[in-house]
Design goal:
By secondary structure, the protein is of the alpha/beta class. It has helices at residues 40-43, 45-55, 82-92, 122-132, 143-146, 160-169, 197-209, 223-228, 239-251, 275-279, 289-292, 308-312, 315-320, 363-370, 375-379, 392-396, 406-424, 433-439, 444-456, 461-477, 485-493; strands at residues 3-12, 15-26, 31-35, 64-70, 104-106, 109-110, 116-117, 135-139, 153-157, 213-216, 266-267, 280-281, 286-287, 297-300, 322-326, 331-335, 339-344, 383-386. It is elongated and about 85 Å long.
Length: 502
């Protein structure tokens, strides 16, 4: 037989598109040519495949070999097709039985010795293979990730020679036992934060409704410490959310980590990050920080130090929960349903409004500093509060009362979030205009207060809706059926950042 077809999958963003690896042996000058829009890493596979086949004791055909990666208009990159190309050559030359490769999708990169190396994006491929009714062969190093797709039939191999031997003997077996996932270790606990009762309250509200949060305060007031503990307050991830997050981490830097299964992401990019680093991109689009924080927390420390153009790219995903990365060769859609938590100083020196009286910044300097953050972006942040410096007596008190643990706060968050899911099927922060009208109707006194606040604070329509969402979350925390005056009053306070009065 001089023609063989092997099934595989390409990685296009989060999509795992099917690819047919067609190998044809013909008379002519010996050589291997790969067609079908391969990028550099795919074109280089010819040398890896040749060496791997030879070092496993098989013969590389001394014929003209054409390898077509179909469809031809889909860009292919990476070393994920090495194993499929090698098996296609061996099947076309009669060195392995081709019938054993039917209904089998194959992923894997080859070393020169024939060892099968892990690749990225295996979880997405496993889910798609299961939907197509095919089995999936992956490197042994990818089994923990592929096994998360419980409906998929996963086969594993670590070496090309051993795989060919198993194909001859017909003893390729589907792996049925999922590997044990290592313990991720202890998570940061909100009980470790001394004082800051109002900030902890805001953190709990943010966790209940999935709201964005901005904390302003002097250096050392605990803003970063508070932000790092928000994931420990959030409800446990559902199976669907955990699969989405794992599929994203699989194609991100560092790949899939089994220790992070079911743990909400906490991403904290440096303020020198570019717009592409935040939203994703590249000639072969890869997810950015907002996608890597999907179903988790994106923390932007020193918010005014970020380039203003970089911050503006957050406006669309904050509203839509997704981002489309368009390049000349392809377009990729990435999910970006993250919780934004930001921290900033009140002025360039950081001590405006602090009881120490250290600040010497002029009003113009303060305005220029805060002007680095656009009004439209601030308008999209639900909760805004001033975080004062913790007094020395609070930090050094030996008999300080025990603070609430993350587990205790999380229990209240889970109960309040469940009320939202039972009522509307989504967190309050994700409500649309029609859903707001249906589920967030304040009592008459609360509506009057909200209208007064809207006039006095010059709130936009977007800010008005966000106040309603926060008030609805406060009502859910109190297990109240309707939004009361106290809920609106507290929600409005989180729209009026204290401009220097601690």
């Amino acid at each position: 037989m001089s023609l063989a077809t092997i099934l595989s999958r390409a990685q296009n963003g989060l999509a795992a598109d099917p690819v047919r690896v067609e190998v044809h042996l013909a008379a002519g000058l010996p050589g291997l040519s790969i067609v079908g829009l391969p990028e550099a890493a795919v074109r280089e596979s010819k040398d890896r495949v040749r060496a791997a086949i030879a070092n496993c004791g098989y013969q590389f055909p001394n014929r003209r070999i054409t390898c077509n990666l179909a469809p031809a208009d889909l860009p292919k990159d990476g070393g994920r097709f090495d194993l499929a190309i090698a098996l296609g050559i061996l099947a076309a030359s009669g060195q392995v039985p081709p019938q054993r490769l039917e209904n089998l999708e194959i992923l894997g990169e080859l070393s020169l010795s024939g060892e099968i190396m892990p690749v990225q994006g295996v979880l997405s491929a496993a889910l798609k293979a299961a939907a197509a009714g095919n089995r999936l062969l992956v490197p042994a190093g990818n089994f923990a990730e592929a096994s998360l797709a419980q409906s998929a039939e996963i086969l594993v191999s670590h070496h090309l020679g051993a795989l060919c031997g198993a194909l001859h003997e017909g003893n390729l077996q589907v792996q049925r036992t999922s590997p044990e996932r290592p313990d991720s270790g202890p998570q940061p606990d909100v009980a470790e934060v001394r004082g800051q009762a109002q900030a902890k309250r805001a953190l709990e509200i943010a966790a209940v409704g999935g709201h964005s949060l901005l904390m302003m305060g002097p250096p050392g007031s605990g803003k970063s410490m508070l932000a790092q503990r928000l994931p420990s307050l959030l409800p446990p991830m559902t199976e669907e959310e955990a699969l989405e997050a794992a599929a994203i981490s699989s194609i991100g830097p560092g790949g899939f980590d089994a220790r992070k299964w079911g743990i909400r992401a906490f991403r904290s990019p440096h303020h020198t990050a570019s717009g592409v680093a935040l939203v994703g991109g590249g000639s072969s689009p890869r997810p950015g920080e907002i996608t890597l924080a999907h179903h988790g927390v994106l923390f932007l420390d020193e918010l005014p130090e970020f380039d203003r153009k970089v911050l503006e790219v957050l406006r669309e995903p904050l509203e839509s929960g997704s981002i489309t990365v368009s390049r000349a060769a392809r377009q990729s859609d990435f999910p970006a349903r993250f919780q934004l938590v930001a921290a900033m100083n009140p002025c360039p020196c950081g001590y405006l409004g602090d009881s120490s009286g250290k600040c010497r910044c002029t009003p113009d300097q303060v305005l220029r500093y805060r002007g680095r953050i656009s009004g439209p972006l601030l308008d999209r942040i639900d909760l805004q509060l001033f975080v004062p410096r913790v007094e020395r007596e609070t930090l050094t008190a030996a008999a300080a009362p025990a603070a609430e643990s993350s587990a205790r706060v999380r229990a209240r968050v889970v109960a309040a979030r469940q009320r939202q899911l039972d009522r509307q099927g989504k967190p309050n922060a994700a409500l649309g205009p029609k859903e707001l009208e249906q589920h967030c109707r304040p009592e008459p006194a609360a509506q009057a207060l909200l209208e007064t606040a809207m006039t006095r604070l010059s709130l936009s329509a977007r800010a008005y809706h966000r106040v309603l969402k926060v008030a609805r979350s406060l009502a859910d925390m109190d297990a109240a059926a309707t939004i009361g005056k106290a809920h609106v009053a507290e929600a409005v306070r989180y729209r009026e950042l204290d401009r220097g009065q601690a």
